Amino acid sequence: MRLLTQRSMELAVRMSGELQYMIELSVVPVMKVLTMCALGTLLAQPKVNIINPAATRLLSKLVFALFLPCLIFTELGESMTFQNMLHWWFIPVNVMLSYFIGCVAGVLVALICKPPAQFFRFTVVMTGIGNSGNLPLAIIGSICHGQSQPFGNKCNQSGVAYVAFSQWIAVIVLYTFVYHMLEPPEEFYELVSDEGELDASVKRNNVALAALETEESMPSVTSAEWPGVFSAMTEESRTPLLSRVFRYPSVSSHSSAVEGDGDSPRARVRCLAEPRVVRKIRVVAEKTPIRHLMQPPIIASVLAIFVGIFPNTNALLFGDDAPLGWFTDSLTILGAALVPCVMLVLGGTLSVGPGSSELGMRTTIGISVTRLVLLPLIGIGVVLLAHKLGVNPHGDKMLMFVLLLQHTMPTAILSGAMTSMRGYGEREASALLFWQHVSAVVTIAAYILIYLKIVTQL
């Protein structure tokens, strides 16, 4: 009896020590991120005024155009090989699955919470599309900075490589699916008919809703992560497209007639032979802003993959004996500035508060709870099923952790940037992103604890 009691006490002490270790691994990284954000908020206060609006814009541009591309190129390029690229195929697939499941959940949220009619598609997108960029990189950087992390010596390099490898599919989804889902509602536009041709013009009383930020105001969270959001705005991006093309036949007919003008036989054949549905799809595809896909982080990812899959090029840039090692070392030093700068910018932009929103408290809570609490639980099932089917390389704990983390993030900030580009729902997106990032401090810490327990047992 005494021996049994002693063993029970030893087991309780061991489990208590293991639980304390896991809590430290999960809470400490989030506290690091929170501390950097808090410093950004403090330095952005009017009495301190160190991170002022001008400094925030400059710092966000540096992050977007320099620090993030440098980090992606150095870490992904060194890890990338042709064999690894074949092994990592489930990373972008996992992102697509998380978006699909999230959007289905978003439809249910919209049906249950009943937001204003014009925000139905907005609710679906904000529930379904999670952040796959700066925030996961910041969390991985904070975890790998600790001495007791369980991911090995190449913790940060592997984590950054996996996150960077998933960004290209996320950007494609944002500039295609999200762009069209966030199309402005027709009631905010005047449709003017002129000999069968429909043209959309923005109502004057709604121009103020999409007014550009002044130099004296702190940039929003969306424009801080994507500094070029306002320069990407055009009158075309702020007018309804799908409703014009698919609801009004004359629009696609007129577009086809214009494109078919000319004496070339190819133009006449396409005009005569192309079915109406195919023509409408082509018009929508041509109006999709694919030109914005090649942003600096995506260019860095493409270059890293191109360099990594060719052994000779890889050996030229990476490794202890690399002839151009001094160049990649310089980029590594610049990339190390990403995490603190991103968190300072995020803290500064969140210091202005949530702002006004017409979305409604019930819908805001529904989106946040679904995005931060329910979808990670579903994501655990998806990743564990993939692991059971042998999809993931055996023994790669960081890969499992990144796959799980992809289901845990708050709404993608670039989805909010799309609302600015489309000219509708910007205030609602800013308020929603504010409350989600505040709530994510608790939910991410809790799920990191669960994820670490999962990856250490597999």
Commentary on this structure:
It is a multi-pass membrane protein. One of its GO terms (biological process) is endoplasmic reticulum to cytosol auxin transport. Keywords: Auxin signaling pathway, Membrane, Transmembrane, Transmembrane helix. Pfam families: Mem_trans (PF03547). With 458 residues, the chain is an all-alpha fold. The chain folds into two domains: 21-185 and 291-457, Up-down Bundle (Na+/H+ antiporter like fold); 246-288, no CATH class. The protein has 20 helices and two strands. Helix 2 crosses helix 7 (155-181) and helix 19 (413-422) packs antiparallel against helix 20 (426-457). The chain is globular, with a radius of gyration of 24 Å. Residues 190-212 and 250-269 have low confidence and may be disordered.
Classify the helix fraction into a percent range: 55-70%
Here the CATH topology of the largest domain equals Na+/H+ antiporter like fold
Tell me the series of helices and strands, N- to C-terminal.
HHHHHHHEEHHHHHHHHHHHHH
Number of separate domains: 2
Main location: membrane
Pfam families: Mem_trans
Keywords: Auxin signaling pathway, Membrane, Transmembrane, Transmembrane helix
Transmembrane segments: 21-43, 58-76, 88-112, 118-140, 160-182, 298-319, 331-353, 365-386, 398-421, 433-452
